[in-house]
Amino acid sequence: MDDVLTTAKSCRHYAMCKIDFLGSGICPSGPERGYDSFYPQGRMALYPALAEGRIPVTAKAVEIAESCDLCGKCDYQCYFITELRPSRVMKELKDFVARHLSSGGAVERAPEDPLLREIRAIVGREWAENDRGILVAYSGDPGPLTRPRMPACVVLPETRAQVASLLKLFHERGIPWAVRGNGSQNMGLVLSDGAVIDMSRMKDLVFDEKNWVVRVGAGVSAFDVQGEAFRRGYRVNVAEPAALVCSNVVCSGIFSTFMPAYGTGADNIVDADFVARDGSLFSLSDKAAPNLFAFHPTDTESPGICTGVSLKLHPTTTDETGILVPFDSLEKAVGFAKDCSVRRIGLAITILGPEYVSVFLSPTKRQAAEAKEIFTEKLGIPYLVLLIGDAHAVRSVAEMGHPMFDQRLFRAINLGLPSLRSARWLDLLGGISADEPYAYLKIPGFAEMAEVALSPSPARLMEDVDPDLRPFFERLYARPEMTDLVWLNTFRILSSRMGREKQFSVNIVYLPLEAKLIGEMIGEFERVAEHHRLKHDLGFITPIDEGKRCVLEYDYFFDQNDPDEIARTRLAAMDAGAVIESYSARLGTIRWIRHVVNQGVSRSENLLYT
Amino acid sequence: MSGRGRGTAVPRGGERAFVLTGATGFLGGHLMAALLERGDRLVVLGRPSKSVPLAERISRFLDWSGQGDRRARVEPVEANLLETDCGLSADRYAELKARAWPIIHCASDTRFSELKRREITEANVHGLRGVLGLAANSRTPFFHYISTAYVAGSGRSRCPESPAGSGPFTNVYEETKARAEVEVRETCTRLSIPWAMIRPSIVYGDSRTGRSTRFNAIYFHVKSLQFIRDIYLNDLRTNGGRKSREHGVSLDADGVLHLPLRVFLPHRGRINLISIDYFVAAALVLIDRAEAGAVYHLTSDKPGTPDELAAYCEAFLKIRGLEIIYGPRDGTALNPPEALLNKFIEAYRPYLADTRSFDRARTERATSGLRVPELTYESFARCMDYAVRVSWGADLSGSPWPGGS
Prior knowledge:
The structure holds two protein chains of two kinds.
Chain A: H1 3-9, H2 29-33, H3 40-51, H4 59-66, H5 73-82, H6 86-102, H7 114-123, E1 128-129, H8 132-135, E2 153-155, H9 160-173, E3 177-180, E4 195-198, E5 205-208, E6 213-217, H10 222-231, E7 234-235, H11 245-252, H12 259-262, E8 269-276, E9 281-283, E10 304-312, E11 314-315, E12 321-327, H13 330-342, E13 348-352, H14 354-361, H15 365-378, E14 383-389, H16 391-399, H17 407-415, H18 417-421, H19 426-431, H20 446-454, H21 458-461, H22 470-477, H23 485-491, E15 503-512, H24 515-531, E16 535-544, E17 549-558, H25 563-587, E18 591-592, H26 593-596, H27 604-609
Parallel strand pairs in A: 2-4, 3-4
Antiparallel strand pairs in A: 1-2, 5-6, 6-10, 7-11, 8-9, 8-10, 12-14, 13-14, 15-17, 15-18, 16-17
Helix pairs in contact in A: 1-3, 1-6, 3-6, 4-6, 14-15, 17-20, 24-25
Chain B: E1 17-21, H1 26-37, E2 41-46, H2 54-65, E3 74-78, H3 90-99, E4 103-105, H4 117-138, E5 143-146, E6 158-159, H5 172-191, E7 195-200, E8 202-204, H6 218-238, H7 242-246, E9 250-251, E10 257-265, E11 273-275, H8 276-289, E12 294-298, H9 306-317, E13 319-326, H10 336-344, H11 349-352, E14 357-358, H12 361-366, H13 377-389
Helix pairs in contact in B: 1-2, 1-8, 3-4, 4-5
C-alpha cells in the first residue's frame, strides 16, 4: 500500500476535522454541503474506494474532489491528533478524478429511486443522496467488530418534523435505518443497508439561563455547545468534542472527568425530545413518555432518534485550576480519588497512567514515547490523579499532604517536554524523595526552577513537528488555553490523541471504586490483551456518585489496516466481554458499556445500583 | 570480651582465607580487591540477582579495580542471609561451615529513608543474624563487623571506641547499625567467638586516584550544585538569562558563575570524611591485628568544616556565592535554587554540622604508621573530576561496573 493510501485508510473517523477545535477554521465545503463526504474525513473514505475500484467515479465524487481547494487546514487538525497529513490524500483524490475526466472516463449518475424522491420531498432535493460517491463515507468505520455496509441512501433532516416524517415513512415501508452523529462511532451501530440519517443539520443552540439549561439540537457538537457555555461562564457535561451531544447522550450516556461533580446518565439532562421508531413524538418530561430512565443490563434497541436535549448549565468560578497528583501505586491513587469524591473535593477527578498523560502532552508519537519513559523511569510515576477544582479544593489537597504538579509546573513540563529528555537533574529528584515519594514537588519555587531548567516555550515543544507545520503549532501553543488543565479538560481536545499511534478498542465498566477489584479487572484485561498479543493500557478511572462507583476504561490498540491484528482485537474484545459478564454475574455491582448503549438517558441510580 | 586471640593474623598453610559479605558494595568491594591483592582467598556471600549473577558482579568490580586476574581466588556463593542456613542446600552449608574461616561482615543497607525501614532493618539486622548463625555453626575464629562511627548516636560530643550508644539516632541506618552491633557483641560473647567492630565515618573515593564506585554523601552535594549551576548556565547562554537575573545569577567577567546560594545549618560543626584508600589500608591491618572485643574508629582526626567544603565546591565548579548560614533561619524566603539545594542536602545535614569528635586512640595504636589523608582541594578535585568523568556513576553502568552508585 502506498503512503497516501495508507494515510487515507488510517483515518480514525473521530470527526475532529468537523469542528474548529484549533481555531484554524475548518474545511469550508463541509458546512456548505453538510454531508460527511465533503469533509476531509469523507474524502479519506472516498479516495481508497476509488483507487481500489470499489466504486466508480460518480458525479458526486467529482464534486467532492473538486470542492477541496487544498487549503491545508485538515493537516493542522489531523496532525494535531494523529500526526497524519490528509492534504496528500486530498491532492491524490483531486488528481485521480482529474486524470479520470481528462482521459474521458465515465461518470456514474445515481439511479432514480422512487423512495428517494419521497425522502427528498420531506427534506429537500439536496439533502438526500444515493450517489455512491456520497454513500461511501457512511459505509464503514475502523472498529474491529464492523463489517462495511453501503447504505441505500443518506438523508440530512433539518427539523424534528422532518425526522418524524422520515421515521414514519421508513416504519411504513419497513426500511432499515441508522442514525449517525459526526464520527462513525467505531462499533458498527451507525451503518445500515437502508437509510443513514445524518443529524448534522440540526444546529439549534438556545440558552435559557434563567432556568440553567441550554437546548441543544441533534447536530450540535460537544465542542460547540461547550464553547458557547464557557463564553457565558458556564460548563456543560459533555464528552468527546466532535461527538454530537444528542447522539452521545442516547448512545452511551455522558461520561467525562467531571462525573464526580456532575454525574452521568440522566443527571445532566433536564429534558430530551425524541422521535419514536414509528415516527411519533415524545419528550422525556411527558407524563406518558416511555420510561427511558429505567436501566436493564441487556442489549437494548434505540428508543428512536433524539432530536434535542436540554442540558444542565453548571456554574463555574474564576479560581478553577487543575492539578496532577502522582502516586506510586494504584491502591494509593484509588484511595486518593475516593477520598476526594467522598469529601466532595474537586469537580473533575480521574486516574491516568503515564501512557495517556504522555500522549496527551506530546505533539508527536516519538515525543510521547520519550515522555512515557521519563514519567515511568526517571520520575517513577505509574499513576497520576487529575483533579480540577477551585482554590479551596486545591488547598484541601495540599492540606491532605499530597505533593502535586500544579498548573504552573504542568505548563512548564508540557512546553519544556523536549528538555526533560536530557535533564540530568531529574536523577537527583529520587534522592530527595526517599522518605516521601515526589517530595520535590513540595519544594517552594520548584515550578519556577523547572521553568529555568526546561526553558519551556511553544517553539521548544514543537521541535519534532513537521517543519512546515511548526509555525502554526507554535502560534497555537502560545495560546494559554493549550496548557490550561481546566480548559483542556472542559474541551477534551487532547483525548483523541489516544488513537494516534493506533486505533483502539475500549473496555468500559462501571464498578465499585475499590482498588482490589479494579486491580483485578485491570489484571484480567491485561491478561486477555497479552494472550492476543495486543498493545494495551489503562485509559482512566473516574469516580461517580460520591466515590461509591467509578468508570474504568481499559484500551486495546490495533492497526486498523492489519487484518490479523483486527481479528485478534475482535477475539480480545469477546474475551474481555466474557470477563466483564463473569464479574458482573458474580458480584452484581458491575455494569458495562455494551448495555448502556441506547440507554444513555437512564437515571444514574438505575444504571449503577439496580 | 577478651577473646581467644588477636585478629586473624596467622595464615594457615601460607595463605589467609575469609568469608566476606557485601563484596559488591563500595566498602566491601574495595576490601575484597585489597584482600585478593595481598594473596588471600575469599568466599563471598552475596544476594542472588536475576539480572546479573553474583559471580559476574564480582568480576566486574575486580576488573574495575585492576584485580580481574585474581578472580579465581574468589568463590562466589549466592546466599539469602534472611533464610535458614543462608538459603543454601544442606551440603553447601555444611561445606561452608566446615571451613571455619574468619568472617568479615560488610554487607549493609546504607539508605537513610524511614520509608525503607523494613528493608534496611532486614539487611542490617536480620541479615546479620544469618551471618552470625554461620559464625556459630562454623566456630569461626574471628568475626569482623564493619559498622559506622555514627552508631554513637547524636546525643554526645565525644564518642569513645566502645560499645554503641542507645541513641538518639539521626536515621534508621544509624539505628539499625547500632542494633546490629549489640547483636554481634551479645551473640559472639555468648558463643565465645572473638569479634571486633570497625567503624568508618563517611567514606569518599581514592585520595590518590580519585576513583570511586559510589557517588552519594559528599558527591551528592557537589552533583546537586553542578546540576543547578548547569541549569543557570544554559539559561544564560541559550535563553537570554531573564530567569537567572531574577534569581540574582550572573556570569562574571572571569567566567565564574555568580550563584548566590545560602545553605542553612543549625550550628557550626565539621564533616568527618575518610578516603576509601585509608579505609582499606586500616581495615586490612585491623583484620589481622584487631583485639578481640575491641572497637576501632576509622575517622578523620582533622575533619573539615562546611565552609572549607563550600570553598572547594566553588573552586571546582567555578561558581561563587555559596554561603553557609549557621543558626536558626531568618525570615527571608529562599529563592528557588536555594530551596532546591537545601532540600537536596536535607538528609545529610546532620553530618555537615557534626559537633561530635571520635576517639581514635585504639585505632592509632593498632594502625601505627597509617595516616588519614587530609581532604585537600587537590584530592577533592581529583575525586570530583573522576565523578564527573563517569557522570556520577551513570557511565559505570555498562563496563566495567554496574550501577556505580
